[in-house]
Specification:
Elements lengths: L1 H26 L35 E9 L4 E3 L7 E5 L3 E2 L7 E2 L4 E14 L9 E5 L7 E9 L9 E4 L3 E2 L2 E5 L2 E5 L15 E5 H8 L8 E22 L5 E2 L4 E15 L5 E8 L5 E8 L2 E2 L6 E2 L4 E4 L5 E2 L5 E15 L9 E4 L5 E12 L6 E8 L7 E9 L4 E12 L4 E16 L6 E8 L2 E8 L10 E6 L2 E2 L3 E3 L9 E2 L5 E7 L2 E9 L2 E10 L5 E7 L7 H24 L1
Parallel strand pairs: 15-26, 31-39
Antiparallel strand pairs: 1-5, 1-17, 2-7, 3-6, 4-6, 6-14, 7-13, 8-14, 9-10, 9-13, 11-12, 14-16, 16-23, 17-21, 17-22, 18-19, 18-23, 20-21, 23-25, 24-25, 24-34, 25-30, 26-29, 27-30, 28-29, 31-36, 32-33, 32-35, 32-37, 37-38
C-alpha cells in the first residue's frame, strides 16, 4: 500500500512538472502582447507661428554710386558802383573728380570738390577809397571753404588783403624782411578749413592796394584768389530686396534657382546741380535682365555697361537734375543662386539630439549659398522636413543663426480621393521658412524642437517563437544609428540593448518616424526588421521572429525527469508484484 501511495505521488509530481514545462514553451508562442511600456510624457501643445524681429543685414557694401559728370552754378562777384580801374574775372569752377569719393549703401555721402578762381585787378589806386569786392560761391553749396589761396603779381608771399566772411574777419600778419616790414598773406589760410555755412567773403581792395602802393614796383596790382569748396550729395533710402512673395525652395540636398531683385536709393543734392553717374553693384558679373528707373519711370534705351567704370552709366538727356527732396533711382534684375545643406548626418540633418527633457529633441539644419552672389540677400528660403509632423513641433523653440526670421508650418497638399469622391488635404511634413541667407554672412544654422514621446517594446523570438535571452538589439532612426545625439560631428549613440529572460527589450522617448533594428545573437547578425511610429498610437509592441533554431533545453530537461520517474515507477511496480 505504501508503494502505491509513493508511486501515485511521484506520477502526480512528474505530471505537474511536465505540464509546467509545456506551459513555459506554449506561452512563448502566444501572439504579441502589449509589453511593459512606460506612459509617454504629455507633449506641449504647438504655439502660434510668428516671425521674430529681423535685424538689418546691410552690413556689406553691395552697391556703389560714382559720379561721372556734373554741372554746377557759377561763382560770381559784386563790385561797388562807381568804382573805376578795378575789374574782376570769374572763372568756371574746376571739379576735382579725382578727389570726389563714391557712395555706397554703407557710406551715403558724395562730396564734390571744386576750385573757384577770381582775378581782381586794380590799375588806378588813386581812384578807389575803401571799396570792398564781394566774392560769392554759389549759394546752394552751404558751404565749406577748404582752402583760400591768395597771390599777387608783386612777388611770392608778399601777399594779403583784408578778407572777411559772414563769420570771420582775417587780418594781416607782418614779416620782417631785411630792414623793411612787409605784410604777408598765408598761401592757405587754415582758419578757413572746415568752416561751414560760408558762401561768400569780402575783399577790401582799397586797403590791399594801399599796402603796396608805396612799392617802387607798383604799376597796378592783380590779386588771384583760389577758393576750394565742397558740395555734398546724399544717397539715402537704400533698399535691397527680392520680389515680394517669391521664395527659394530647396528640394533634396540642394537647388539652383533664379530670383528677381530690386536695389533702390534716393539721390539728394542742391538744386542746380546736375549729374550723371555709374551704378556699380558688387555682384555685377552674376546679374542679368536689368531694368533701370528714375523717378519711377523706366529708362529707355537701357543704360549701357561701361567696363572702364565696372558698372552701368546712368546718363539721361539733360543729366539727373537733383533737388532737396531727392530723385528716386531703382534697378530690377535677376540672379542665379545655389543653396544647399552642408555638414549633414547621412544626408538627413546637421544634428538631432535630446533637448531640455528626454522626451524632447532638437533638429538642426545647416544651409549655405554654394554658388551665387556674395552680398545679395536671398530671402524666404524654404524646405520640408518630411519625417516630422507639424503637430509635433514646439514652435516657441525655433532658432536661426545668424539672426533672421524662421517659421514652421504644416506642409499640406490636396488631391482628389475617388473612394471618398472629394478633395482631401494631406500633410507632407513640416515646412521650414528661413527669412534670409547671405553668402557673405556664411552658413545659416536653423533648428526647432519637437516631441519624442513614442515608445516601442520589442520581443526577440526564435524560429518557433520562443524567447531568445541575451540577444543584442541595435536601433536605427531613418537609417542613422539612434542615440542622444546624432550629429555630422561628434555623436553620442545608444549602445545595443540586451533582451531579458523573456526576450524583451524596451525603447522609450522616441520621435515619430521610420525605424529599423539589427538583431545579433552570439555575435552573429540574425535579423533586420523595420517599423514605424506615427500618428496617435504612442506605444507599439513588436515580435521579432528570427531564423535562430529552436533550442528546447527546458523541455528536454523536464522530459528527462519524466522518463526517469516513469522508469522508477515501473521498477517499483514490478517489485511489488
Amino acid at each position: 500500500m505504501s508503494y502505491q501511495k509513493a508511486l501515485r505521488g511521484l506520477l502526480i509530481l512528474v505530471f505537474i512538472t511536465a505540464s509546467m514545462g509545456i506551459t513555459i514553451v506554449s506561452s512563448s508562442r502566444d501572439h504579441a502582447g502589449t509589453g511593459a511600456l512606460g506612459t509617454p510624457y504629455p507633449g506641449q501643445e504647438p504655439m502660434t507661428s510668428e516671425d521674430p524681429s529681423v535685424p538689418e543685414w546691410n552690413q556689406f557694401n553691395h552697391t556703389m554710386i560714382a559720379i561721372d559728370t556734373e554741372e554746377a552754378p557759377l561763382p560770381s562777384s559784386t563790385i561797388p558802383a562807381g568804382v573805376s580801374g578795378v575789374s574782376v574775372d570769374t572763372y568756371i569752377p574746376t571739379w576735382n573728380k579725382a578727389l570726389t569719393n563714391n557712395a555706397t549703401n554703407l557710406q551715403s555721402d558724395i562730396k564734390l570738390n571744386y576750385t573757384a578762381r577770381f582775378n581782381i585787378t586794380c590799375t588806378n589806386h588813386l581812384a578807389i577809397s575803401n571799396y570792398t569786392v564781394r566774392l560769392n560761391t554759389p549759394l546752394i553749396f552751404k558751404k565749406t571753404f577748404n582752402d583760400l589761396l591768395i597771390s599777387t603779381n608783386l612777388g611770392a608771399v608778399t601777399i594779403y588783403s583784408y578778407a572777411t566772411t559772414n563769420q570771420t574777419t582775417f587780418y594781416p600778419a607782418y614779416l620782417t624782411q631785411g630792414s623793411a616790414v612787409y605784410p604777408v598773406i598765408w598761401p592757405k589760410v587754415t582758419e578757413f578749413k572746415n568752416t561751414t555755412s560760408m558762401n561768400y567773403f569780402n575783399f577790401n581792395i582799397s586797403q590791399a592796394v594801399h599796402v603796396f602802393e608805396s612799392s617802387p614796383l607798383y604799376t597796378g596790382v592783380a590779386f588771384r584768389f583760389e577758393v576750394g569748396y565742397t558740395v555734398t550729395l546724399n544717397i539715402t533710402s537704400w533698399a535691397m530686396y527680392s520680389k515680394p512673395g517669391e521664395s527659394f525652395r530647396i528640394e533634396g540636398s540642394q537647388s539652383t534657382r533664379s530670383m528677381n531683385y530690386t536695389v533702390a536709393c534716393r539721390l539728394i543734392g542742391p538744386k542746380g546741380v546736375n549729374v550723371t553717374f555709374h551704378y556699380i553693384p558688387s555682384d555685377r558679373n552674376l546679374t542679368s535682365n536689368h531694368k533701370f528707373y528714375l523717378k519711377n519711370a523706366l529708362l529707355s534705351p537701357t543704360p549701357s555697361y561701361e567696363s572702364r567704370a565696372g558698372g552701368w552709366s546712368i546718363a539721361p538727356p539733360g543729366k539727373v537734375q537733383l533737388n532737396s527732396t531727392g530723385v528716386d533711382f531703382k534697378v530690377e534684375f535677376r540672379c542665379n543662386s545655389t543653396i544647399g545643406f552642408i555638414e549633414q548626418k547621412a544626408g538627413k540633418w546637421n544634428s538631432d539630439g535630446v533637448a531640455t527633457r528626454l522626451d524632447l529633441r532638437t533638429r538642426k539644419f545647416k544651409l549655405a549659398v554654394l554658388s551665387g552672389p556674395m552680398y545679395l540677400l536671398i530671402e524666404r528660403v524654404e524646405f520640408t522636413v518630411r519625417d516630422i509632423a507639424y503637430s509635433s513641433v514646439l514652435l516657441i523653440s525655433r532658432t536661426v543663426e545668424p539672426a533672421s526670421s524662421i517659421t514652421v508650418s504644416d506642409d499640406t497638399y490636396k488631391y482628389y480621393d475617388p473612394t471618398l469622391e472629394k478633395e482631401v488635404t494631406k500633410s507632407n511634413g513640416t515646412k521650414v521658412l528661413i527669412g534670409r541667407i547671405q553668402k557673405a554672412k556664411g552658413p545659416v544654422l536653423a533648428s526647432f524642437t519637437y516631441n519624442a514621446s513614442y515608445s516601442a517594446a520589442l520581443r526577440v523570438l526564435d524560429e518557433l517563437r520562443n524567447p531568445i535571452p541575451g540577444a543584442e538589439i541595435t536601433l536605427y532612426f531613418h537609417g542613422v544609428r539612434f542615440g542622444p545625439l546624432m550629429s555630422a560631428g561628434e555623436s553620442s549613440l545608444q549602445p545595443p540593448k540586451l533582451a531579458d529572460a523573456l526576450g524583451n527589450a524596451q525603447f522609450i522617448n522616441l520621435p515619430e518616424g521610420n525605424y529599423s533594428v539589427e538583431v545579433r545573437y552570439q555575435g552573429q547578425l540574425v535579423k533586420n526588421q523595420s517599423f514605424s511610429l506615427y500618428g496617435s498610437t504612442m506605444s507599439l509592441s513588436i515580435d521579432i521572429v528570427t531564423p535562430v533554431p529552436y533550442q528546447p533545453w527546458i523541455l528536454v530537461s523536464w522530459l528527462a525527469i519524466f522518463g526517469i520517474a516513469c522508469v522508477i515507477g515501473v521498477l517499483l511496480f514490478k517489485r511489488k508484484k
